[in-house]
Every structure is written in structure tokens, then in C-alpha cells.
Amino acid sequence: MASTPSVAGPSTGPNDYNGDRSQLSRLLRHPNSTLSFASFDPTIAHTGGIKPTKNHQLENYRPKRIVIETSPEGASIWRFVPRARREEGVLDEGVWPRVVEVCGERIILTEDQWDIYKLDPAYDCLVPAPPRFSVITKAAPAPTSPIGARPGKRRPRSPLAESPQKRQRGRSVGVLTSSDEDSGDEDMPFTHAAGPRRSKSQLRDLQAQSRRARREKTLRAQAQQEQPIQDEDMFSPSEREPGPDLRGQSLPPGSASKRRKVAQGGMATGQPIIEEDDEDEDAVARELDPRAAKRTRTASPTSTRRTLGSKRAARERDKQARWSRLMASRKKDRERDFMTGIMEEVPTSTSTSYGSSTPQGTADRFESRPAPSTTPPEDPPETPITDEERARRAALEDSIRKLQELERDKPLWDEAAKQRRMRETAEEDEQRAAAERRRQAAAAQAARERRQQFEREEAEAQARADAERLEREAAAKRAQERRKQKQRWETGPWTPARALDRYRALCDAFDATKYSLNEPLTFADVPWPVLHAPGAFDVADIDWAAVEAFFQAVRPYVRVEEYKVFVEKSHRRFHPDRWRSRRILASVADEAEREELELAANVTAQALTPLWRDLK
Questions:
Q1: Both ends of the chain: CA-CA distance in Å?
Q2: What's the CA gap between 244 and 226, in Å, rounded?
Q3: How many H helices and E strands in the chain?
Q4: Listed residue (92, 84, 143) closest to 117, CA to CA
Q5: Average pLDDT of the residues of the chain
Q6: Is 576:601 a contact under the CB 8 Å cutoff?
Q7: 526 CB-near residues (< 8 Å, 6+ apart)
Q8: Which residues have a Cβ under 8 Å from the Cβ of 513 and sit 6 or more positions away?
Q9: Mean pLDDT of 274-298
Q10: Strand 105-109 vs strand 85-86: parallel, antiparallel, or unpaired?
Q11: DSSP 3-state helix, strand, coil percentages of the chain (rounded to 5)?
Q12: Torsions phi, psi for 135 (to 5 deg)
């Protein structure tokens, strides 16, 4: 029968040491300090949420437990709680509280109590696969230090430090596994590993050797990259520049982009990356003595780069000067060889036909030939001369004569070329001046045209504004007149005489108004020839009888000679062609209203036609 697990009691938080008071000396730095626990989650404090990625599924992105030690003065320090050992296939440490076997006894522990056991180096915590309980046992005693070893806080160098990647002295960039993370959490208080001690003189010698080797390697790489491709026989061994000796100079800092490229390449393959730091001056010293400090910088990287750049530019200028001298020397050699070849073809004997001695076949003799001798030359032994020899000699003499003429005419040619260049320069200057004048004239003309166009647009805009203003004023005036007339005609008894006065007033306003979309025609604006009072009739009341009754009723109030003109004007006013020419109906937006007005106007015109014909 299984025994019932005992309860460790309620957790007291920071002061719960699971009944083992010796844990105080192993866990606390100060006897009166207190411990508290919390969880560290790298995905916290993201208001917009985090998209699930592959990285969030990794071990180092999961929440971790941290322990905080608070001193009596209120100061706090913290570290990650190391993870317990887990069997293969176990993903996490489970939920709490739960039953744990502590040194053979089953006890219900909280997560804080479990973390205290994990922090205590005297205990070993194991999480087996379910359904077995987690186990806490006494840890095996640490191996004793060998005799003669120097006591210290640093742990011995781990086997990983002796790997080829570790010997490259670079920073490892990559994804950590759970084992890497556990070891990193446990080794957090310890930052260096112990190594063999050496004297300061040995360290200085090793540092100097390392610096010299790296500088020579860097200079060789720079020389290979910056050396232009040239012909090897361009410089003689005596003219070649000795290799630069810059051992005493400081080198510029390495490019960070190179290290970034290496890191990115390793991350793409998913493998850990060792980022080489070629510019680390104290790499060997740090490998031999982990306590070595970083070397103090004695020169600015900017000044070092500036110095190297100026020296590189000076070397390039020297190379260019040597190349120019070499090309000039080669040109002179070619000219000298050419003249020598010509003079070698001249016969060595003296020609009596020209009265002067011929050159001896060298350029020096050709350039500085002796004056013709005044003494008669000795007669050479007579040898037969063939026609071919005579032709060859004649050709050579002709070539020499032409060369002499060319040399004699060279100053004239130089002067002519100089005059030609001067004329060409003057013509180019004149052409540039003329082009500049044309450009300025075109710019001035364009400016005048733009100004005139702007003035025209301004004048047109002002005219449109004035016309619109006058139109608005006239419309306002007409509206005011219509309101006054409406008030006038709507008061008092309605008689044929008042109907005639209203008709004449509306006719004047109707004939003078230019109806448009801004001022459309309305039914009340039309001077309908009817006897009905204003506002008491509509389109249906306008017919032949109403029109004839109006003209019969108002005839006594119009003189005989004016009545005929009165009828003719009324007939033309309502004629359909007159309405189409004035585009009166186009100002009416409502189609139904426009059709009603057109029908009433046609009825009025048809009713006036017989009256107009009777008066002819």
C-alpha cells in the first residue's frame, strides 16, 4: 500500500528553505537577505501582439524563472534559476504544486520550493517521464583540486573551450540549445576560465609577434587588392618600388560589414557561427591570460585611415610619374631607332655627284653632320654601278632631302598650327558668345511672353469678375423690382387698367432679361396677356379665350395708333422662333416645367396671330 505524501506546509515565499537551514549559507550572499521568485517572459510588453514565428518555439524564447535576492538595505540582484535535468522526451518541468520525492520521501512542493532546491548546489533535481515523480537527491561531492593548484573562484576550462571553433577567439552567433542554455545559466556568475600564468615580458613578446604577423598579412592583402594590373617588363628591377614597410604604423579598424556578412551566412544555414575578429590586438594575450585587459587606443581610427590614404595617393602619384617618364623614354628610343635605321641604309662612300659627304648611318651624324669639305675628295677606286644601285641611291637621297625639307619647314608648320588654333579658339569664343546672346534673347522673349500671357489672363479674369458682379447686381435689382411689383399688383382691386399696367411692366423686364442657368425663367416672370389677378391663375388658365378677352378689355385704354404696335410687339414676343433664339426655355432645368411653359407660349402666340392679321 502506497504511503500518503506529506505536505511541506504553506510556502512562506522568500524565506522558505524546505527545513534545511544550511541552505542559507549556500544561497544567500548576506545572512539577512531574502529571496523572491518571478517569471521572465521575452514576449511581454508587446501591445500589438506577436506573430508566431519559429523563434518563439525555441527553448530560449520560453518563459524562465528568475530569483531575486534583496539585501536589508533594499538593494536587489537577480539571476536565472537553472533548469532541472530532464529525461529524453520531457518538454518542461510540469505544473505546481505537486508531489516530489525529496531524498526518498514524497512531499508536496510549490514551485518556489522546487526552485530553491535547483539553486542549491548540494542537491540534484531530475524530472523523469510521467507517471514517475520528480526526484531530488543529494548531489555528488565536487572533485578536489589537484595538489599545487592555485585556489580561485574560476572554474576549470570546459572541453568546449578547446574546440577548434573556440580557438578562433570569435564571438559565437547562433541558436542555443537547451543544454547550452542550462550551462549558460549555471555559469553566469563565472566569466573566465583559469589558464597558465606567464610573465609580463613573455606576454609582451607574444603580443608583438602577433601584431607583426597580422600587420604583414593585412598589408599583403591590401597590396594585392590595390596593385593595378601592369606589364611586368614595364619597370626595370632598379625602378621597381620596394615593398612598403609599415610595421611601426597602426592599422585601421576592421570593417564591421565583413563580420556581419559572416554572421548572416551562418544564420542562414542554422549552424553556430564563429565571427573572427582580425583586429583584436590582444587575442593571444586573452587566450593565455584571461585576466588581460583591453589595449588602450593610442590613435584615432580616422587619423589612421587618413594617413594610410595619403600615403597610398603618394604612391599612386609616384607610379604615374615613373610611367610617364618610361613612356617618354620609349618614345625617344623609337625615334632614335627609326633615324638610325634610315641612316644605316645610306652608303658609306662619298658621292661626287652631290659635292658633299654622305652620313655614316647614325642619328648623331645625321643631326650634326660636318660642313662640306673645301678640299677635293680623293677619287675612290672605280667600281661598276648598276641601275638598281643608282635607283636605290636616288631614292635614299630623295628621302633625305624630304626629311631635311620637313625639318626646315617645321617652324612654319608650328606657326601655322598656332595661328589655326588661335582662329579656332576665337571662332569658338564668338560662337559661344553668340549662343549666349541668343539664349539671353530667347529667355527675355519667353519672359515677355509669359508676362503678357499673365497680364491677358489677369485682364480676362478681371473682366469675367466684373461681368459676374454686374450680372449679380442686375439680377439683385431685377429681383428687388419683381418683389416691389408683386407687392404693388397684389394690393387693391383688380381692374383691366391695372392688368394692362402689369402686362407692360412685365414686358419691359421680360425683354431686357437674359435668362440662363444662374437666372432661370419662371412662370411668374412671363407677361401672360390675361385678365386674371397675379397668383390666381396657372398654365391651365392660359387659352385663346383668355388672350382674346385681355386684348378686347384693354383696347379702350390704348390709343388707336398705338394699339396696332402693341399687338405686333406682343405677337413677336411670344413667337416660338423668338423664344428659341433667346434660349429662354434652355434656362429651365425642370423638364416638366419647361414643357408647360412652351405649351402656354405657343397657345398665346396662336391666339395673337388672328388679332395681328386683322390689324394689317
A1: 142
A2: 13
A3: 15, 11
A4: 84
A5: 75
A6: yes
A7: 506, 510, 597, 600, 601
A8: 478, 519, 525
A9: 51
A10: unpaired
A11: 55, 10, 40
A12: -125, 135
Strand-pair category, 123-127 with 273-275: unpaired
The answer to whether the CB of 576 falls within 8 A of the CB of 605 is: yes
Return the C-alpha cell found at 149: 593548484
Q: What is the pLDDT of residue 188?
A: 41
**What is the C-alpha radius of gyration for the chain, rounded to an integer number of angstroms?**
59
DSSP letter (8 states) at residue 525? G
Phi, psi of 51 (to 5 degrees): -70, 135
Distances in whole angstroms, Cα of residue 244 to Cα of each of 179, 216, 321? 50, 10, 18
Q: How far apart are CA 345 and CA 366, in angstroms?
A: 12
**How far apart are the C-alpha atoms of 557 and 552, rounded to whole Å?**
10
Beta bridge partners of 446: none
Whole-angstrom Cα distance, residue 501 to residue 505? 6
* Identity of residue 499: A
pLDDT at position 68 over 80: yes
Q: What angle do CA 392, 395, 397 make, to 5 degrees?
A: 110
Euclidean distance between CA atoms 80 and 185, whole angstroms? 6
**All three cell numbers of 305:** 585611415
Contacts of 188 (CB under 8 A, 6+ apart): 79, 80
Read off the amino acid at residue 180: D
Give Cβ neighbours of residue 140 (< 8 Å, ≥ 6 apart): 124
Q: How far apart are CA 478 and CA 465, in angstroms?
A: 20
| Axis-axis angle for helices 496-512, 544-554 (nearest 10) | 110
For residue 532, CA distances in Å to 131, 382, 546, 550 come to 111, 154, 9, 9
Burial class (CB in 10 A: 0-12, 13-18, 19+), 99: middle
Q: Is the pLDDT assigned to residue 153 strictly greater than 70?
A: no
Residues paired with residue 124 on neighbouring β-strands, in sequence order: 137
Whole-prediction pTM: 0.29
How long a stretch of residues is the chain?
Answer: 616
C-alpha cell at 304: 589612421
